[in-house]
Amino acid sequence: MLIGSWLFLKYSPSDNIAFLGWMNSFVHVVMYAYYGLAAFGPHMQKYLTWKKYLTTLQLAQFVSQFLVLVAQINLTECPMPTALTLTVFGNNLFFIYLFGRFYYQNYIKNKSNIQYNVDKKSKSRLD
């Protein structure tokens, strides 16, 4: 993020891009609060039921960044340099993929496996 911020501020400074940095900072405050609490040990687990929402917030951040970048390219009179645009798009799509995959595996696929196991246990009790 440090290198990306420097590149943006040097080669394509704008208020839209500054917004992305502020959004990223907010998400990191929430993220570090979560992991800071988790570092206190297992007795904090009862307060950490919001991991799914943290992942959702991170996904929303990257999708929002992608949309802001598309708007920055298409709706402004000062387009971003091509190399910077391709780098940021690639980085953003990579993070959307990684966080999306994590979300799917932990909250969608896992939920269907849990439901399958519950149904399987219920059926075996009926037999």
Automatic annotation (TrEMBL):
Q: Does the keyword Transmembrane apply?
A: yes
Which InterPro entries does the annotation name?
Answer: ELO_fam
What's the short name of a Pfam family annotated to this entry? ELO
Please report the record's description of how this protein sits within the membrane: Multi-pass membrane protein
Q: Which reaction does it catalyse?
A: a very-long-chain acyl-CoA + malonyl-CoA + H(+) = a very-long-chain 3-oxoacyl-CoA + CO2 + CoA
A GO molecular function term, named singly, is: fatty acid elongase activity
Q: Which chain regions cross the lipid bilayer?
A: 20-41, 53-71, 83-104
- Keywords linked to the UniProt accession: Fatty acid biosynthesis, Fatty acid metabolism, Lipid biosynthesis, Lipid metabolism, Membrane, Transferase, Transmembrane, Transmembrane helix
Supply the EC number(s): 2.3.1.199
One GO CC term of this entry? endoplasmic reticulum membrane
**Gene Ontology biological process terms in this record:** fatty acid elongation, monounsaturated fatty acid; fatty acid elongation, polyunsaturated fatty acid; fatty acid elongation, saturated fatty acid; sphingolipid biosynthetic process; very long-chain fatty acid biosynthetic process
Q: Where in the cell is it found?
A: Membrane
Q: Which domain of life is it from?
A: Eukaryota
Query: What's the family?
Result: Belongs to the ELO family.
Which protein is depicted? Answer: Elongation of very long chain fatty acids protein
